[in-house]
Amino acid sequence: MNLRKYTWSIVVLLSLLTGLSLSSLAQAGEGWNRYNFQKQLRFERPRLPRNIGSPPRGRGGGSRGDCPYRPEFPPMMALVPGNATKLTVRESPTVWVYVPYTTDEVNQGKFYLQNEDGRQEFFRVDVQLPPTPGVVGIQFPSTYRLTLNQIYQWNFEIDCPTQDETQSQRAIVIGFIQRIDPPESIDVAPQESSLDRVAFYALAGIWHEAIDTLANLKLNSDESELVEREWNSLLRDENILLQELADAPIVGYVTITNPQLE
């Protein structure tokens, strides 16, 4: 049975169970799509060809250094899988980081990209943070494009104030990212909804596009309850292990203040 027939069968069954007319159900169900029939969003660990290396699997998003301890908030960390490779299909992707500080505490940061072992730097930019604590998006400069199959280390660094205004404490979040060719399963048709795209990316193990698409839905979608449910489902996934950030707000994107790459 194809998808359209299956969907209509569900509508007919609901009409029999609820006593509603088919026209009423069809009108109420406008905008239904394949995604709505999935039980929950699930992230699969990617399976890469043998000739392609993969980034380190561990959390890879923890922080180094010491900033003021905020017991009411989770520590600063990247939104990356806890036990899977971190893949993208974009030349200039976006990464998401949780920052538990206001701009009164931390206003500026640095974002830079290196090779896997950190010995070669490709770019470094200064960024300005949103005013409130929460999850922030960091877009790679469009002037730099990731090389296919190469493993990179990205770094997000902030300087935290201390009582001595002449000194500061530094904290760094480190993550790994690798660009690959989109698998055939990501050949998403134009009519697919954004949640369908999230599901496609998640099931293919393409983490950065899955989280980026879902984060933008949280920022802009009218279907807040559904999107919020799937955001929680994805971050609590056993292959992700970011449950401590499931309730953290998304507060927007950082602003690059020196777009010229060094």
Protein described:
With 262 residues, the protein is an alpha+beta fold. The protein has 2 domains: 1-32; 41-256, Sandwich (Immunoglobulin-like), CATH 2.60.40. The protein has helices spanning 3-18, 22-28, 194-203, 207-220, 224-235; strands at 63-65, 77-78, 87-88, 94-99, 108-115, 121-128, 134-139, 151-161, 168-179, 250-253, 255-256. The strands form 2 sheets. Strands 1, 3, 5, 6, 8, 9 and 11 form a 7-stranded mixed sheet that branches. A 4-stranded mixed sheet has the order 2-4-7-10, with helices on one face. A hairpin with a 5-residue loop joins strand 5 (108-115) and strand 6 (121-128). The longest helix has 16 residues, at 3-18. The protein is globular. The model is unreliable at 1-38 and 54-64 (pLDDT under 50).
Short descriptors:
single chain, 262 residues, alpha+beta, four-stranded mixed beta sheet
Q: Quick summary of this structure?
A:
With 262 residues, the chain is of the alpha+beta class. The protein has five helices and eleven strands, in the order ααβββββββββαααββ.
